[in-house]
Each structure stands twice: as structure tokens, then as C-alpha cells.
Amino acid sequence: MSVYKDPRSPFWQFDFQLAGHRFHGSTKATTKREAETVERSEREKARQLVAQVKAARTSLRLQDVATRYWTEVGQHHRDSQRTWHQLGLLLKFFGPDKLITDIIDGDVARLVPWRRGHRRPHDDALISPFTVNDLTEQLKKLFTKTKAWGVRFDHEPRWRQHWLQEPPERVRELVGDEGERLEAETRDDYLPLFRFAQATGLRLKELCLLKWNEVDWDAGDTGQIRKEGKGGRLVTRPITSEIRAILWPLRGHHPEHVFTFVAQRDYGGRKKGERYPVSLSMA
What is the mean pLDDT of the chain? Predict the structure, then answer.
């Protein structure tokens, strides 16, 4: 029976199976006739859901591939927000109905200059080659995962020829009064990030992606920051009085990310005056 009366509830319940999936819950109806109407509606919703799940498992449409990738992999990334953004950009460029098996070198060759023309929201400067390559790398990851699902590509793009040259990382210490002068030119909303970098010596990626669940105020005698660093190693820093003075005022700015910026204008879904997490490409 697909609808039944539970003596513990004033409402009729529905319970049925479709394509190996069980669907059950309250109809919020007090009569059997009303409950059966709700149950028919729930069956229709269930059919649509099963169709979507099936499509995401078997379809080669970019929308379905991205959906399955996000469900299986992307949502579990350390910086899942970034992955979500990258998938959205790919869908915007190619369209949801583009078959991933139809994406060839010519398509990627058009994707790169399209992405290269985008600007950073906080200062309107063109994005870096690193950020452009990041999107190409995300597309390559979709291909890699799709191949793991058993899909064969006859004309997979030759990825190496689409990478932009990135400037080598330049590392040096600030000397003399350079720190003071740099701080004087830094926007107020970026000052905590700058001061935290000076106080801890953490790498840029470790800084920008710092989350509140990695800040333990009560660990040990002073508190501790625990973060996954390069090569998966655990990086720890004690929360000294200097670091506490930097981080404590940032509480409440964002529920997940420690360092944020204030949007200077409306751009890409962001609203002027509101706070958003600092990303690696912006720092």
C-alpha cells in the first residue's frame, strides 16, 4: 500500500519504491483521498529525480558530467567553492548540452582567450595566467574523471599546448622600511591577511584558504592553527598574542573563511559593500 495511516501522526504517510529507490514521508493530509493526490504528485517528482540521477550517471552532456563530478568529487575538495565556480564557467562557455566527447583542441583554444579576458573583481585588473590555466586544468579533470567512468575519447585535446606560461615564483624578504610602506598602501580589508603573513610565514595558498575550523582557540596553552600544507603535510602555528589580535576581530565576517574583502563595486554576482572570501587568484 503506497499510502497508510500512522497511529502516531494525524497525517497519512506515503511509501513507495521506484527504480530501486525508496520514497517515503508525510503527505500532510488528514484524509485518504487527499493523501492519494499527494502521493501521485510525489511519484511524479520521484520519476523526475530518478531520470536526473540516471542522466548524471550515463549522459555525456557537459551539464550531466559536471553534476556527477561535483557529486562524487568536487563538493569534497578543500576549496569546493572554487571548484563550483570553475564548473560554472565551463558551462557558461560551452553550454550545458555540449557533449564532452565533442570538445576538441579548437574548443579549448577558444576557451583560453575567453577566460584570459576576464578581470579580477576587487581591482578590475586582468586575471593572471595562473588563473586562466586553472580553468583549463579543471576541464582536463573532467576528462580524466569521465575516462575513469569508462568513456573513450577519440580526439582528446592536447592539453600541453594550451597552457599559458606562468611567471616564476619570486620569493624575497622585505628589507628596511618596505614592510611599513607596503602596509601603508594596502587596503584596510586586506591588512589582516598581510599582517598574518608577516606573523606566521605561511605560504600564500595556506593563507588565503584558511578556514575557521582550522583555528582552534583552546588548543594547548595559547591555541593553535592547524592546516594542510604542501604535499598534504600538516602545518601548525601557535596562536600567539600577536596572531590572536589579528584574527579575533575577523570573527563574524564570514561563517567559513577567515580572510575576506569588501567588494568595491557590483560584479559577477557580488554586491558593492558586502564581504566575500579572499581567493588565491586575488592575492
Answer: 82
Q: How far is CA 41 from CA 14, 20, 24, 36, 126, in A?
A: 11, 19, 13, 9, 50
Residue 260 near residue 211 (C-beta atoms within 8 A): no
Query: Which amino acid is residue 1, in one-letter code?
Result: M
The C-alpha cell at 159 is: 592539453
Could you tell me which of 15, 31, 12 has the C-alpha nearest to residue 23?
A: 15
List the beta bridge partners of residue 4: 13
In the chain, DSSP finds a helix count (H) and a strand count (E) of 9, 8
Pairing of strands 224-228, 275-277: unpaired
Angle at 83 between CA 68 and CA 69, to 5 degrees: 10
CB contact set of 137 (below 8 Å; sequence gap of 6+): none
Q: CA 154, 160, 165: angle at the middle one, nearest 5? A: 155
**Predicted local confidence at residue 150, as pLDDT:** 81
CA distances from 68 to 8, 62, 91, 232 (A): 39, 10, 14, 25
- Look up cell 569534497; give the residue: 76
So what's the pLDDT on residue 20? 76
CB half-sphere exposure, 254, CA atoms < 13 A: 19
> In terms of residues, how long is the chain?
283
